[in-house]
Amino acid sequence: QKEVEQNSGPLSVPEGAIASLNCTYSDRGSQSFFWYRQYSGKSPELIMFIYSNGDKEDGRFTAQLNKASQYVSLLIRDSQPSDSATYLCAVNILTNFGNEKLTFGTGTRLTIIP
Amino acid sequence: EAQVTQNPRYLITVTGKKLTVTCSQNMNHEYMSWYRQDPGLGLRQIYYSMNVEVTDKGDVPEGYKVSRKEKRNFPLILESPSPNQTSLYFCASSSGQSSNQPQHFGDGTRLSIL
Description:
Largest sheet of chain A: 6 strands, mixed
Structural class of chain B: mainly beta
Distance between the termini of chain A: 36 Å
Order of helices and strands of chain B: EEEEEEEEEEE
Number of helices of chain A: 0
Number of strands of chain A: 11
Distance between the termini of chain B: 36 Å
Helix content of chain B: under 10%
Radius of gyration of chain B: 13 Å
Oligomer: heterodimer
Strand content of chain A: over 45%
Structural class of chain A: mainly beta
Radius of gyration of chain A: 14 Å
Strand content of chain B: over 45%
Shape of chain A: globular
Number of helices of chain B: 0
Helix content of chain A: under 10%
Number of strands of chain B: 11
Largest interface: A-B, 22 and 23 residues
């Protein structure tokens, strides 16, 4: 089982609709969760981070965390063509050696259709 | 401007010719790390450094070296590059001494080893 799993997509969403991106993780002890956006050929840029169960909203973006079910999601409201990118989920995982490691999923490619 | 600067941005070289990719951050961050990104495999951590005294291997350290002689710099060294090290490389930094804080990424270095 992969430590962090995402559906690779592509996920196509009409402009103005809600895009829903999901991520599951294997380590029950994980405490820190991040969503990054990456345009083709560019570096990842932070969209949201969440540490506690529940929802966290920032503008059109909402991160949702459910530690009991081990998933974290990102909702994008009023999707715009500029939201078309690959979205990376990252989870801070405690390793067998007692240190922490940030593990990325392989990303979900999102396309917003005008 | 707060940033992580990598050089070079692009490099084509030959097998066995030692190379160094520099990384510098101006945010006084303690934690720095190197990732490589390959299609279908996502971002994988090569090495990380919690501070100038602690550096450790990530998931794919073979064939790479790093050093952390001062807080702001974290160069990646390929002593004898091979074609399987052709990839897109990112340096990142964050506050604190673990990976539980948002990462700030450099613009990336695209390496081609012939």
